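Ticket #4471: complex job returned nothing on first submit. Input attached below:
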Amino acid sequence: MKSALEIWETALGELELQINKSNYRTWFEKTSGLSYQGDHFVVGVPNTFIAEYLDKSQRSLIEKTLIGLLQKPVTVVFSVNNEQENRTMTYGGYAQLPAPPKQPRLNLQYTFDSFVVSDCNRLAYAAAMGAAAKPGQRSYNPLVIYGGCGLGKTHLLHAMGHVAQAEHKRVLFTSAEQFTNEFVSSIRERSTEDFRTKYRSAEMLLVDDIQFLSGKQQTEESFFHIFNELHNTDRQIAVTSDRPPRSIPMMEERLRSRLEWGLTAGLQPPDLGTRLSILRTKARKEGVNVTPDVLDLIAEHIKLNIRELEGALNRVIAYAKLLGVQVTPTVASEAMVDIAPKQPKLPPPPSLLLETVARYFQIPMPDLKSHKRDKQTVLARQVAMYMLRSETEWSLTQIGKELGDRQAITVSQACRKIASNIEQDTELKQKIAAIQEQVSLLQDEPSGRVQRNTANS
Ligand code: ADP
Ligand code: MG
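Support reply: We reran it on our side without changes. The output follows.
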């Protein structure tokens, strides 16, 4: 029997394929499988807003997906962990559920054994094994594993944790987001000392998605001190990131340079052979006989993300089960018909981004580049700087030059200001998310106004 956590991971893989990306991000990204007892499946969600929405609008899709996976009737319950009031609220008429565990646990499936090694991930795999076998060695400390979404970063981090735990080492696994939340509530509860003690006592500290620390100055500083203490005493630190440390926007230079002290290893999208061997491994584990022609078909369809690859296989298997037929290439194609193979997302063209910002704030484009200083224009300009910085390859100098011949330092200050305001100001956060969505939609427009990479289609 799989754990609720794993079942939900698989369900998310399927759900991600069935709804559009921004909806998925908004409603599902921070959910987790909490428990599965009788026919009640409890999903943890970050706030009541999300609970209500999922309860009202997505319940049937979620239940259908879970039923497909579990092959049994399921009633889903949404549980909000309300930190302020320190109690758990549930949606779906089921009360008195345990609060979700404070510390994310290691996923038992994510081991070195279950990781398929090939040229696209060999270095990261070897480095993670090395650091897990001999934690604290300077040449691997810290270890930074970076790469795109669904390429195995979290998997490798968990695998390290398992090895160290088996050696009875005190392993602390967290995500940068979790770390931030904990830090913020430790300030509120005046327990920063406990917070620091906890992290300082780790013999191996694993932090997933470190890029989320960028722009959160206080949290970053607190991590910086913990990092130093652990590193000074040769405790192993490993982090993952969606990009190499030097490309994380708005990360303090001192932390960035420390992340580069040890070893930095990237993960590349899997080549065809790797995709096939991942699919074979997975099918074998599921105990399903899937013929090579079907595996070929799936591997040709999904190229850039191993999570999606697994999701597609699950979906094909579930579909065949539902129809009560063998998995043939025809059945597989039918099952995958609405899974669009995703293009690699290129950074948006700066001009498109600027146009969208100007339109959103309803100011003329020339004003954005002018020296006008009314409130609306200044905000629009700062947002434009921030978004150019975080979403395109442009340097601070280039951004300053484009936006009214300003100094790089001015741009850097604006970016920091917006990054820190986003933390407190949900309205601003929503505005930026809305602009991002518009840019992304325009970028995807088939009209061809934007150059697209068609090599994979
Ligand atoms: P990331 O953290 O990079 O977004 P994950 O580590 O969550 O990606 O991996 C996504 C899924 O793909 C997980 O189920 C993981 O087990 C699987 N996976 C990734 N890389 C491999 C691999 N090389 N071999 C087997 N499974 C993999
Ligand atoms: Mg991950």
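Residues 272-335 form a domain with the Helicase, Ruva Protein; domain 3 fold (CATH 1.10.8.60). Closing as resolved unless it happens again.
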